Task: inverse folding
């Protein structure tokens, strides 16, 4: 029996016994909470719990980790490997999953004999690190996992030959409404920090009578603190025109906090007239916040707004359904790889027998 | 939730012989009648001025449970409030003025917050201050939420009062037993009797929280009101006297009883 056939046999066995490794490449956020990284960790842990051999792959050996903001469970349960300073052994049956932001490493892994999947959570980053004219498929990335049907539609249009599956983010149960009335605090989440600072300055200048209302910039806090601040807030402000999904507003909704935001360029599919206050133009936002405040201070905010938010958040909170969906997707992926390896195995054995 | 709060509204009135009394009074009473959660009673502590007695006798209070208490001494806001508290029959009391209005959600929120924050003994409303033409002038009691100011967001503390005096007791909802234990207003103190009262309460560890909801509308400097009188009326007080009363408030809050403080020009 040739070495190739033996290797194929071994690969098929590893795939069938879920011994093949799923390498999830992640960004080092240096201890800052980031929904896109949380999404990948959740995928990896869900699969680990379902018996898959998942590994977190990071660039540098001094990786900060996610224990401070996501929880130590993710660090303890998942194997972490650094690319730096070691020769990473990747077997043909393994799968490497790379965020779209790391497009620049796609050429580096193009020749690895493993399976390759893009995890795309932001349309805005797709071409960020690719050279003009480059596409994922030319580096062997023919599969993609994304967060919404709208993203799938977009990716399918710009990355032909790539099959796209949707796994919506799971909103942690750490987010829940408070037993206590909210405080006069507005939680604000923006793409760039300067957007938050500018908004706050503008608001206080325009409405000095509300200078006693506090804003909390949600940047750089742990998930549990993040959840606590949201729970205490009377309004959640989201300013991110380039967002591709919008985890933050759904976390707010799940915390029982009304959301106000500018409508992103890629309108999220969960966004409707009942679950938030949505505006096209950021210029009008301070006035709307002031109007909302006045209504909140007078107990005039419609219950429907809170109910609409909770209803939306429920769709992204079903751990069991989410787990089944993730597991099924990867079982199908493994199944198709088994078929490919078996087909190659049959071809090789036939050639050998002939 | 039961649609009633165990609360007595204490309303002192000196005279009805002031400009627009009827208009103010109707609005004030209507603001009690339109509460989303009802109170037990309205205790009106009035002087024996005949026109006022007749006016109150003729006034239609609808289904409000009104207790009228005649005050026979020299008219004095603090003394009248104290008598009203004494005559009230609820667990909680709230201080009212005839030219002011409660917001319709105030008793509802007082009840709600008192049931949630069971260790809190007094609740302040966010007060909307308006001028005599009903134009918005600003908020009061909101400073308990100001960033880098409050030790515990939403709570009034003794330290805070030493740095900032602008808090109001009008509209405040407080347990009657707290007033019985630590005294209510000191009638000998002019100008700063509310300040001294709040200093005394916080000094005695009474937990006071501001409910972040608009609860009260206060007319600032209505002609002929107490504070207008101090500034523009027949009882104008000098800068020295202002200093004296501020200083007295800071000295007197250690004592539960009114020590009959008097200002003399020679001081």
Result:
């Amino acid at each position: 029996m040739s070495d190739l056939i033996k290797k194929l046999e071994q690969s098929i066995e590893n795939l069938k016994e879920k011994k093949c490794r799923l390498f999830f490449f992640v960004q080092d956020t240096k201890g800052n909470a980031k929904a896109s990284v949380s999404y990948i960790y959740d995928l990896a842990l869900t699969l680990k719990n379902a018996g898959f051999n998942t590994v977190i792959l990071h660039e540098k050996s001094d990786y900060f980790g996610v224990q401070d903001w996501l929880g130590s469970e993710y660090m303890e349960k998942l194997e972490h490997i650094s690319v730096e300073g070691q020769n990473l052994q990747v077997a043909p049956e393994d799968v490497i999953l790379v965020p779209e932001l790391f497009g620049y490493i796609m050429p580096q892994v193009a020749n690895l004999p493993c399976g390759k999947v893009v995890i795309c959570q932001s349309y805005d980053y797709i071409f960020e690190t690719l050279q003009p004219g480059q596409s994922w498929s030319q580096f062997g990335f023919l599969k993609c996992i994304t967060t919404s049907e709208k993203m799938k539609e977009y990716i399918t249009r710009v990355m032909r030959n790539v099959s796209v599956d949707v796994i919506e983010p799971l909103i942690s149960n750490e987010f829940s409404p408070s037993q206590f009335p909210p405080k006069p605090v507005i939680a604000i989440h923006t793409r760039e920090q300067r957007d938050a600072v500018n908004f706050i300055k503008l608001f206080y200048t325009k409405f000095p009578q509300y200078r006693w209302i506090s804003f909390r910039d949600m940047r750089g806090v742990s998930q549990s603190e993040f959840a606590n601040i949201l729970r205490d807030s009377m309004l959640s402000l989201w300013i991110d025109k380039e967002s591709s999904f919008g985890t933050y507003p759904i976390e707010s909704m799940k915390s029982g906090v009304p959301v106000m935001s500018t409508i992103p360029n890629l309108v999220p599919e969960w966004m409707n007239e009942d679950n938030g206050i949505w505006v096209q133009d950021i210029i009008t936002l301070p006035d709307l916040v002031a109007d909302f405040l006045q209504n909140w201070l007078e107990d005039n905010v419609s219950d429907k707004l809170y109910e609409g938010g909770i209803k939306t958040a429920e769709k992204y909170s079903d751990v069991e359904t989410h787990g089944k969906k993730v597991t099924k997707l990867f079982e199908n992926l493994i199944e198709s790889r088994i078929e490919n390896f078996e087909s190659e195995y049959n071809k090789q054995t036939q050639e050998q027998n002939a | 939730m039961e649609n009633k709060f165990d609360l007595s509204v204490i309303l002192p009135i000196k005279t009805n012989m002031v400009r627009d009394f009827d208009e103010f009074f109707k609005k004030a009473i209507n603001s009690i009648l339109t509460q989303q959660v009802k109170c037990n009673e309205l205790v009106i502590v009035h002087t024996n001025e005949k026109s006022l007695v007749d006016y109150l006798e003729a006034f239609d209070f609808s289904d409000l449970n009104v207790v009228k208490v005649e005050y026979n001494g020299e008219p004095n806001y603090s003394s009248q409030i104290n008598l009203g508290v004494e005559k009230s029959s609820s667990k909680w009391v709230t201080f009212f003025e005839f030219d002011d209005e409660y917001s319709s959600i105030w008793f509802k929120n007082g009840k709600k917050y008192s049931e949630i924050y069971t260790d809190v003994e007094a609740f302040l409303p966010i007060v909307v201050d308006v001028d005599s033409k009903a134009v918005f002038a600003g908020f009061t009691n909101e400073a308990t939420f100001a960033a880098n100011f409050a030790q515990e967001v939403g709570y009034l503390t003794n330290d805070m009062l030493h740095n900032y005096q602008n808090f109001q007791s009008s509209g405040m909802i407080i347990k009657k037993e707290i007033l019985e234990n630590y005294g209510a207003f000191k009638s000998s103190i002019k100008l700063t009797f509310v300040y001294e009262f709040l200093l005394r309460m916080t000094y005695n560890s009474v937990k006071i929280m501001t409910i972040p909801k608009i609860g009260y509308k206060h007319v600032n400097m209505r002609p002929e009101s107490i504070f207008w009188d101090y500034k523009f009326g027949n009882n104008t007080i000098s800068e020295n006297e202002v200093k004296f009363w501020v200083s007295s408030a800071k000295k007197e809050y250690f004592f539960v009883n009114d020590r009959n403080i008097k200002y003399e020009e020679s001081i």
About this structure: The mean pLDDT of chain A is 93. The longest strand of chain A covers residues 21-26. Chain A touches chain B at residues 179-181, 183-184, 209, 211-214, 234, 297-299 (CB under 8 Å).
